[in-house]
Amino acid sequence: MISNRLSIEEAILKGETSLGIELGSTRIKAVLIDHSFQTIASGSYEWENQLKDGFWTYNLEDIIQGLQDAYHEMKQEVQQNYGLTLQTVGSIGFSAMMHGYMAFDEQDQLLVPFRTWRNSTTGKAAKELTDLFEFNIPERWSIAHLYQAILSKEEHVPKVRYVTTLAGYIHWLLTGNKAIGVGDASGMFPIDESIQNYNESMIHQFDELIASKGYTLKTSDLLPKVYVAGEQAGVLTEAGAKILDPSLDLQAGIPLCSPEGDAGTGMVATNSVRKRTGNVSVGTSIFAMIVLEQELSKVYPEIDMVTTPDGSPVGMVHANNCSGDLNAWLGLFREFYEAMGQKVEADKLYSVLLNKALEADPDAGGLLSYGYFSGENITGLEQGRPLFVRSPESKFNLANFMRIHLFTAFGALKIGMDILTKEENVAIDSILGHGGLFKTPVVGQKMMAAAMNVPVSVMSTAGEGGAWGMAILASYMKNKNQEESLEDFLDQKVFQDVKGEEIHPDESDIKGFETFIERYKKGLAIEQSAVDNLV
Q1: Contact 230, 167 (CB under 8 A)
Q2: Which of 92, 153, 304, 364 has the CA that lies 20 to 30 A from 53?
Q3: β-strand 286-291 against 313-319: which pairing, if any?
Q4: Radius of gyration of the chain (CA)
Q5: If we measure between CA atoms, which residue out of 235, 272, 280 comes closest to residue 257?
Q6: Looking at the DSSP assignment, which residues form a beta bridge with residue 388?
Q7: Is there a contact between 302 and 411 (Cβ–Cβ < 8 Å)?
Q8: What is the dihedral of CA 415, 381, 307, 22, to 10 degrees?
């Protein structure tokens, strides 16, 4: 133990460490790892998006404050545990929730508040671009946001000189380099896998389209430069070091890898970058990433075509809503408990209530729930209304109540995944789950295995999440051998001794989920009615 401590102290002093910071939808997290990929220290900052003028957004002040607070908490942990003031690290990487729209003018000023992935306001633009490119352009994608602004004749559009994602913005702010990782880029504009860059023919098509509407913008000039995993994409500037660490302890000159999206860091954190592997990230939203062996036979609006951080094709099923409603109900139970004069730790509350789902009827007793805080593209809802419904014949008890909220968290995802597995016959050997839902052992895995009808594993590293995955990408840039692929680096170095717990789907649970999903599909009319009539 003493030798291990000395080894970590030496790594900190020599800068043989890697830092990953991820800006998720509810939390910003910083993770510092050593050369054996173990977490040395971490810090976090809780935040929430806001609905302003019809758009889901985070303001720039919160972005910077959260970044600084997460870094500061991680730095303080280093000080407390090792008695050292963090002054340098070996490499840094930033990641964030994918997609969205951050548009800047020639003075580098943000033109409109950051529009996040959660906005479903770009339906017309997404459909027109999908038809034009014969390639699925989801509503969340940056190019859909830009084109919708053009269609809506928004005043800011002629002034746009640069468009990026949240991760791309942070990287630019701290390095001065307008860079983006290929995985994050693939959620902005379609990628040509043969060149691992934006699709040139589609760039030309888009330029012609907007020119016909009177705009002289050149798309290739607006988008950040694409990098693949392993490439250096800049260094921390003096100004960037002051932003990240206002105490001025952090030194400039640290190399940065390309910024990535949370989908890419999820793939890395679960060692899911090889073909026939997949992972599911569970949080406020939920998405599955399946690394494909070949292209799909046709365009599906439910399936995004993106890439791994090293440029391999991925079928992505993304649902806007997942655990938000479940968390709201757990908060209500906590309020009740406290009103009774009791105190309970959050982990204990989650564990007790989620485990009740294991005692439930296989189909959740005929209950029905939609955790739609926002619109849901997969099921055709432009807005959301969280909804719980039951009939007089439903078996209404706590176990079924908890199971239905777990089932519905996977509901929209299941519809998209069925396209891959049942219509395209995509082979999936296993799925790895990560996110807060899996911190409670067994339950989340068991429910997901039932939904996907595939073995689901959770690794001991899964709790670290995307920030740890980003730190791994930073380490890969710094420490890889000359010709070492990301797949081999993960397999042979990062995950060689990592244990995973695999749960196979239970036949009764599979049948129960299939019964539920038919009820879920039929009940979408109820959800639509709630949207139409509940203001």
Answers
A1: no
A2: 304
A3: antiparallel
A4: 23
A5: 235
A6: 369
A7: no
A8: -110
Distance CA 277, CA 510 (A): 21
Given a contact cutoff of 8 angstroms between Cβ atoms, the answer to whether 462 and 438 are in contact is: yes
Pairing, β 260-261 against β 91-96: parallel
Residue whose token pair is 């693939």 = 186
What the block records as the tokens of 206 is: 């888009």
Task: Determine phi and psi for 129, rounding to 5 degrees.
Answer: -70, -40
Give residue 445's identity as a one-letter amino acid code: Q
Ordered by start, the domain boundaries in the chain are: 324-409+508-533
Six token digits for residue 20: 């990953």
Owner of token pair 């807005």: 383
- Residue 320 corresponds to which tokens in the numbers above? 């806007």
List the pLDDT tens digit at each of the 535 positions of the chain.
Answer: 455 888 999 999 999 999 999 999 889 999 999 999 999 999 999 999 999 999 999 999 999 999 999 999 999 999 999 999 999 999 999 999 999 999 999 999 999 999 998 888 999 999 999 999 999 999 999 999 999 999 999 999 999 999 999 999 999 999 999 999 999 999 999 999 899 999 999 999 999 999 999 999 999 999 999 999 999 999 999 999 999 999 999 999 999 999 999 989 989 988 999 888 998 988 888 989 999 988 888 999 889 899 999 999 999 898 989 999 999 999 999 999 999 999 989 889 999 999 999 999 999 999 999 999 999 989 999 899 999 999 999 999 999 999 999 999 999 999 999 999 999 999 998 898 887 788 888 999 999 999 999 899 988 765 667 899 999 999 999 999 988 999 999 999 999 888 788 999 999 999 999 999 999 999 999 999 999 999 8
Helices (H), 120-245: 123-133, 142-151, 166-175, 182-185, 200-211, 219-222, 238-244
> Token pair for residue 22?
């991820």
Longest dimension (CA), the chain: 69
Question: What is the model's pTM?
Answer: 0.82
Q: Quick one: the chain helix, strand, coil %, rounded to 5?
A: 45, 20, 35
Contact predicate 21/72, CB 8 Å: no
Q: How far apart are the first and last CA of the chain?
A: 59
177 Ramachandran zone, left/alpha/beta (phi>0; psi -120 to 50): beta
Comparing C-alpha atoms, which of 460, 436, 435 is closest to residue 347?
A: 436
Contact 20, 474 (CB under 8 A): yes
Sign (positive/negative) of CA torsion 492, 493, 495, 496?
positive
Residue 514: which residues within 8 A CB-CB, separation 6 or more? none
Torsion of CA 280, 286, 291, 295, to 10 degrees: 150
